[in-house]
């Protein structure tokens, strides 16, 4: 059987640079060699991992991707976990997916060592692997399961989204075609690598194309802007919050700095925004500042990217564009017909090779989310002059903040552990920087509760982006006749 396609492609780019940092560059050949070395360590005396789950807690860059490729080449399923998550969030993902091995780098291994010991999982410190790879690696079919990504939804705890190698390849090929990726491209990678924006749209497409990735540990604005000034990039992909922060930075910069940075942005061949709604005003401000027309696109963990404005064609502020190559999109009225007319809102439903296989160990949830073979996104949209415009979500319990999808129910469950909180309702309120701000209305058992104290208490219990930004103490939560909290009425309290 031939190599997995991404490996075969990497061989064809062997001498090209895959990753570049200020200190060191690594070629595609080095990526192949290192991944084979790590794969041998993962395999030990097994001939292949047979879809065993291997979690990845490695900083973005060469070692992260070498580890990812190692898992795949050894026949495992990759479970990337959030570097800044709390221990209980890690424990949930590791136990729910029945992970057998955690790969961590030297700086992260100590942080997860005691958890690995507690739940009986093998911890591999990737930084310590330096043997020569001598073992033949197994043949892996593209229809094998490759990845689990945990995504928040309408249930309190996140669900594991399972994709095959074929799904991942379809997601990458669609974007490579639509946005005309080539081996001449150079892109910064500063988004977290436990979500598809970073994994598929940036790193996956770049390495499929033979392009150069410059990894950053996080959104290190000053370092990234230095490289923009150097004309280091042809492409740039980010969430709306980052464009808001860049606009603020450019407006605050002195004339000469601003001119130098703007010149770098101007030269790029494409700048993309996604993961959350890009306000038309931000789109227009960015064009006014840099001359670049952002290309907005729409996607979801379960389906990769589905809809995009055109690379060569109209980029309409406030719209997400038309279906991407290989992706079928329809709008459907709830319990009603498929909508074929323009200007009539409906739920976005998606079909195609890009669509995930199942939620990990949740057959009912998987079945519920498909209708006649179409994946139900839970997002409402309307078709206007050939382009889709997102109108909102069907569930009030899903919050998008800084590009992260959060479950209000998960945050409520955590807040109810607070000794003073008797009841609570969590909502997302519009926020100019974060898209939505996590906001809590609480009924107390006694005493008072300040936002600062609540935020302090949440640290270590919830990831930073889940911690409420706004708080209101109320004597009772608004409820309907059935006694259920009405979230629109909760929003009206603020
Ligand atoms: C952090 N802070 C926040 C939030 N996050 N405040 C309000 N709301 C938030 N969501 C606060 C911190 O507590 C801290 O406060 C301060 O902001 C700086 O935190 P830090 O984490 O350092 O911020 P940052 O580095 O500037 O991060 C902002 C970010 C990051 C770069 C936008 O959130 C990010 O990388 N988001 C992207 C997530 C992503 O990739 N999503 C794609 C999912 P203090 O200073 O007081 O301590 S995939 C997806 O959605 C689909 C498939 C798709 O379509 O792509
Ligand atoms: P995730 O679960 O993190 O994959 O987030 C997917 C969700 O992000 C989608 O269901 C949408 O609600 C939202 N989303 C992604 N891109 C856009 C966009 N361009 N405009 C509005 N919402 C978006």
Q: How would you describe this structure to a colleague?
A:
It is globular and about 70 Å long. The model has no long low-confidence stretch (mean pLDDT 96). The strands form eight sheets. Strands 16, 17, 18, 20, 21 and 22 form a six-stranded antiparallel sheet that branches. Helices cover 32% and strands 28% of the residues. α2 (28-43) packs across α3 (62-73). The chain binds methylmalonyl-coenzyme A and adenosine monophosphate.
In this structure, how is the largest beta sheet organized?
A: 6 strands, antiparallel
CATH architecture term of the domain at 5-140: 3-Layer(aba) Sandwich
Report the count of strand segments: 27
The number of helical runs is 15
Say what the CATH topology of the domain at 5-140 is.
Answer: Rossmann fold
Low-confidence stretches: none
Radius of gyration from CA coordinates:
23 Å
Q: What is the name of the CATH class of the domain at 5-140?
A: Alpha Beta
* Helical percentage: 25-40%
Structural class: alpha/beta
Gross geometry: globular
Bound molecules: methylmalonyl-coenzyme A, adenosine monophosphate
N/C terminus separation: 60 Å
């Amino acid at each position: 059987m031939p190599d997995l396609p991404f490996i075969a492609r990497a061989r064809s780019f062997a001498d090209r640079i895959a990753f570049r940092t200020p200190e060191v560059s690594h070629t595609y050949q080095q990526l192949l060699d290192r991944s084979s070395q790590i794969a041998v360590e993962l395999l030990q005396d097994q001939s292949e991992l047979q879809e065993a789950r291997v979690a990845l807690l490695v900083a973005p860059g060469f070692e992260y991707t070498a580890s990812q490729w190692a898992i795949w080449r050894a026949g495992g399923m990759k479970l990337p976990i959030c570097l800044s998550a709390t221990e209980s969030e890690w424990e949930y993902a590791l136990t729910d997916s029945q992970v057998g091995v955690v790969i961590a780098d030297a700086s992260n291994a100590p942080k997860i060592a005691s958890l690995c010991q507690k739940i009986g999982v093998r911890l591999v410190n990737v930084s310590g692997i330096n043997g020569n790879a001598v073992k033949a690696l197994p043949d892996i079919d593209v229809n094998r399961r490759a990845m689990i990504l945990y995504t928040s939804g309408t249930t309190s705890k996140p669900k594991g989204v399972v994709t095959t190698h074929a799904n991942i390849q379809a997601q990458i090929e669609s974007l490579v075609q639509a946005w005309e990726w080539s081996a001449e491209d150079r892109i910064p990678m500063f988004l977290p690598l436990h979500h598809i924006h970073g994994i598929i749209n940036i790193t996956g497409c770049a390495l499929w194309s033979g392009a150069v990735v410059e990894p950053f540990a996080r959104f290190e604005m000053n370092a990234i802007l230095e490289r923009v000034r150097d004309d280091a990039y042809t492409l740039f992909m980010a969430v709306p919050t980052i464009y808001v922060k860049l606009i603020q930075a450019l407006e605050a910069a002195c004339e000469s700095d601003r001119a130098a940075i703007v010149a770098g942005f101007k030269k790029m061949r494409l700048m993309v925004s996604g993961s959350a709604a890009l306000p038309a005003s931000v789109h227009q401000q960015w064009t006014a500042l840099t001359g670049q027309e952002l290309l907005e696109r729409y996607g979801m963990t379960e389906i990769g990217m589905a809809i995009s404005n055109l690379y060569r064609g109209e980029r309409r502020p406030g719209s997400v564009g038309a279906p991407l190559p290989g992706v079928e999109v329809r709008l459907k009225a709830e319990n009603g017909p498929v909508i074929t007319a323009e200007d009539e809102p409906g739920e976005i439903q998606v079909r195609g090779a890009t669509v995930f296989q199942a939620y990990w160990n949740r057959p009912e949830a998987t079945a519920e989310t498909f209708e006649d073979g179409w994946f139900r996104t839970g997002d409402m949209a309307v078709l206007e002059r050939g382009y889709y415009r997102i109108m909102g979500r069907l569930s009030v319990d899903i919050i998008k903040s800084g590009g992260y999808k959060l479950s209000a129910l998960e945050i409520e469950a955590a807040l109810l552990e607070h000794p003073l909180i008797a009841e609570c309702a969590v909502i997302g309120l519009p926020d100019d920087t974060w898209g939505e701000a996590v906001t809590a209305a609480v009924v107390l058992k006694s005493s008072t509760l300040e936002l600062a104290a609540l935020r302090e208490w949440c640290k270590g219990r919830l990831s930073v982006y889940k911690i409420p930004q706004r708080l209101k103490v109320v004597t009772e939560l608004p409820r309907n006749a059935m006694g259920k909290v009405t979230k629109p009425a909760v929003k009206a309290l603020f």
